[in-house]
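Fold this sequence, please.
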Amino acid sequence: MRTNRKTIAAGVGAAGLLGLGLYLAVPASAANPTPSPSRTAHAGKGDPGKGHPFRRARALRGVHGEATVRRKDGFHLATWQRGKITAVSSTGLTVRSDDGVSWTWTAGDKTRVRKNGEKSAIKALANGDQVLVAGERSGTTRTARLVRVPKPR
């Protein structure tokens, strides 16, 4: 009977420590819901490659989001959005998500465009195209690294 009491006491103690940890951690993380990138922001180096969150963005069911990620050269603010193109130019595009959020993305030489499973270009995109855009945010500027128009079903 003593062994059971010791086991129960250890379990209650562990649960108490876990609860205390959550009690202290949750308010600290909720205090600043919009993280900002560090001063070692991305300067155009690297490519979203193996193991990078952009590769997994298409599996997400959400409509838009941001995450602070660590790379060899520091912290970066990775961002993605799923929605319809409302404006497109040679320098970027504006996408509106189903929840009404509109973000403008700049595009450059490093922006990869995939349309219907094949390589494409920004000029091949049109208003109304359903897209998944992934890139980085620095301040208020969102830079698209990947624009993907899914194959029609």
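The first strand starts at residue 64 and ends at 71. Strands lie at 64-71, 74-89, 92-96, 102-106, 112-115, 118-120, 130-138, 141-149.
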